[in-house]
Amino acid sequence: MVTLVALFAANAAISCLESTFGLFMEHEFHLSPGMVGLMYMPGAVASVLAAKFSGILGNKYGRWKVVMLGMVIQGSFFAMAPKNEWGVLITSIIGLSVGMGLVDGCAPALLAQLSELRHGSTGVIYTLQTVAIQLGFVTGSIFGSAVMQYAGFRMMGFALGGFFGAVLSAAPVQP
To answer: Which of 45, 66, 74, 142 is deepest in the core (most CB within 10 A)?
Structure first.
């Protein structure tokens, strides 16, 4: 269950970013839509690399630890400020993406492992995984847009950092 919550939280946070980042970049830095699209490239590369290495790390140190590390990284980089400086912004995007890659790379295998241990099969767990991810994307877009509209992009980052802190503080030490 905690792994599903981690998937929900990680995808909700990324959805918040994706639904608000373009507008923030156009208003704050006066970038064209094409340039905003290019801003996603460092994050995409970092996420793919982190997902690739998460399997190796998960096998060596434990999948649960890698998922929690990914959550800590995502929360920390969301809360990083000030977002109106290029270095901080690019570092935040790369850090968020590394965290997301670690969660996405280890969570499915962890879910399968836990399901097999506790229930003897893995059939329904992938349906639950898909539901957690999709609910995260829907909830994140709605929440992110509302917070950005009323409080701004920087406050959304602080709110998401706090959200990750709350999720992590509620998580048990082991799955």
So the answer is: 74
